[in-house]
Specification:
Elements: E1 2-3, E2 15-19, E3 38-42, E4 53-55, H1 59-66, E5 73-77, E6 86-90, H2 98-110, E7 114-118, H3 142-152, E8 159-163, E9 176-179, H4 181-188
Parallel strand pairs: 1-6, 2-3, 2-7, 3-4, 4-5, 5-6, 7-8, 8-9
Helix pairs in contact: 2-3
Length: about 190
């Protein structure tokens, strides 16, 4: 039922949008990104929006998605149970979260010129907090997530742009920058 790293050529675009579920993306209309590049989303994003590729690692989340007859492509880690119409399996180094897994996948497999990251906050707050698979009190240790994001964005070919309200990922790297949503609105006009 699945296939391994056969990424459809239409998804290999110069611009990729990685959509996390951090509170900073609340209120941003993701439909505005359609047609401007490949959209890769994480976990429960499928509840409100169907990205080109949905990344999910957690078995509970995969089960939830599977119960909905999700129509899109799902990317998960080798060794995970997943049975979707379009399933891709991949093994990423040092990726304990769907976000870090997706960043590594983008850097190592997709290799776009740029990747805009929305809702990849690295701090408390989730648009789905308090719903199934997102408890009100989270045990996530954000001090361990930010280094994963920083490590995953080390690339010689892809520029990673963290679109957010605050810069929480740590030190800026030569291929990484933080921008506000206002600045993103300006850059979006040129894509």
């Amino acid at each position: 039922m699945g296939y391994e790293l056969r990424v459809h050529p239409e998804f290999k675009t110069d611009t990729i949008f990685l959509i996390g579920n951090g509170a900073s993306r609340k209120g941003f209309d993701l439909n505005r990104l359609v047609g401007k590049g490949t959209i890769i989303g994480c976990n429960a994003l499928y509840r409100d929006f169907v990205p080109d590729i949905l990344v999910a690692l957690d078995s509970k989340m995969l089960k939830e998605i599977g119960a909905t007859n999700y129509p899109g492509a799902v990317l998960t880690s080798k060794g995970q149970w997943a049975k979707f119409k379009k399933t891709m399996f991949w093994k990423a180094p040092a990726s304990r979260t769907s976000g870090a897994f997706a960043l590594n996948f983008i850097k190592m497999v997709m290799e776009p010129l740029r990747c805009y990251c929305l809702g990849m906050d690295g701090y408390h707050g989730n648009v789905y907090q308090g719903t199934e698979n997102y408890p009100r009190s989270s045990n996530i240790k954000f001090k361990t997530i930010n280094p994963q994001y920083t490590l995953a964005t080390k690339s010689n070919t892809t520029e990673f742009i963290n679109v957010n309200t605050v810069s929480a990922w740590g030190d800026e790297l030569p291929n990484y920058r933080f921008i506000s949503y206002d600045r993103f609105e300006e850059e979006l006009k040129t894509i």
